[in-house]
Amino acid sequence: MNESKSSGMIEWNSIVPRIKDRFGQLKSSWEGSKQESGSAASSSPFWVMVQKEIGDHIRSLRFGILIGIIVLACIGSIYSVIGAIRSGGADQQMASDTFLFLRMFTLTSSTLAVPSFATFLSWLGPLLGIALGFDAVNSERNKGTLGRLLSQPIYRDDFIIAKFVSSLILIAIVVFSLGFLVMGLGLLTIGYPPTPEEFMRIIVFLLIAVVYIGFWLNLSILFSIRFRQAATSALASIASWLFFTIFYSMIIGLINSATAVSQTADAATQLRQMNFILTLNRLSPTELFTETITTMLSPGVRSLGPLTMDQLVGAIASPLSLSQSIILVWPQLTGLLAATIICFGLSYLLFMRQEIRSRS
Fold first, then answer.
1. How far apart are CA 204 and CA 125, in angstroms?
2. Is the pLDDT of residue 359 over 80?
3. Most buried of 136, 154, 281, 319 (most Cβ within 10 A)?
4. How far is CA 120 from CA 82, 175, 212, 301, in A?
5. d(Cα 246, Cα 238) in Å, to the nearest integer?
6. pLDDT single digits (tens) 191-201
């Protein structure tokens, strides 16, 4: 019993240094490959697996179907924005807007019930991460290729890291391609390019979207390691997505109704209740992503929580700079990064433990 506890402690204590060593080796191999010829990079087993995974994803039918759905949704949102601009229904709203180019990502038409591009990305982006990761490990195990692959002279953790890196590269390519597509169509529609401030805000928004989709990718990879059947891991991933997208806000609404304070209560009690509900909402990655992109694409947003009259007195009604907006959403960004890293660490640990047990 003591030996099993001590071995478990050794595994837990050595997991972080092992990950650091592996990423250090990957970094050194990448720097060495840049100094050598181009064929040296392709000879690395890790990058060979990454290229193989990228090729498999691109050639898969489900990836093509999902990309088609996302592109159609993107075109629909752009059509809605163009219709709103041509109809003149948003002229009053856009006339006083200094950051007009950012409205291409957030504006919706009053006549067409089509959400904005940012809303579509928050809905369909997780499906892209789930589709790329729900059978990352269990499909290899069920086909019998996992044992043959790990019997080769490669590091065991290169397998799980290659799965994550290859899918994340594809996610970044898709997100930035769609973002630049919206920027290009916005340039043709509005007639002038974005300002450097708007361009940097869009780039930060796309990077945050990659991190958000990467969270769902890591969660689906975790389920693919935990469950042996691909259908089970897919259902678990989709159930988690539906829970945080639809049902979590309903549960928070019920909690808010059950713990609501009276309207005649003092300001401190009401503020405490509002902060409590806001904290519960921010336990959801969907809420963190929504608050982050709202701040990045709407410079006029100066606060993400309740404000008192003392805080509003003397405030200057002006948009925030990019650095101030990043400072405002820094807790949300930290939460998204922490959730993504935790999911990846759990996937790494669970995969390494499964392989050790299968060998013993």
1. 16
2. no
3. 136
4. 16, 12, 13, 21
5. 12
6. 778 888 889 99
Chain centre distance of CA 261: 35
CA distance 215 to 256: 27
Structure tokens at 292: 């982050």
Look-up of token digits 């982006």: 125
201 CB-contact burial (10 Å; exposed 0-12 / middle 13-18 / buried 19+): buried
**Secondary structure (DSSP) of 249-296:** HHHHHHHHHHTPPPTTS-HHHHHHHHHHHHHHHTTSHHHHHHHHHHHH
Model confidence, pTM? 0.82
Least confident of 97-101, 141-145, 332-336: 97-101
CA distance 325 to 296: 6
In single-letter form, the type of residue at position 127 comes to L
Nearest Cα neighbor of 297 from 120, 108, 105, 117 is 105
pLDDT, average across residues 315-336? 85
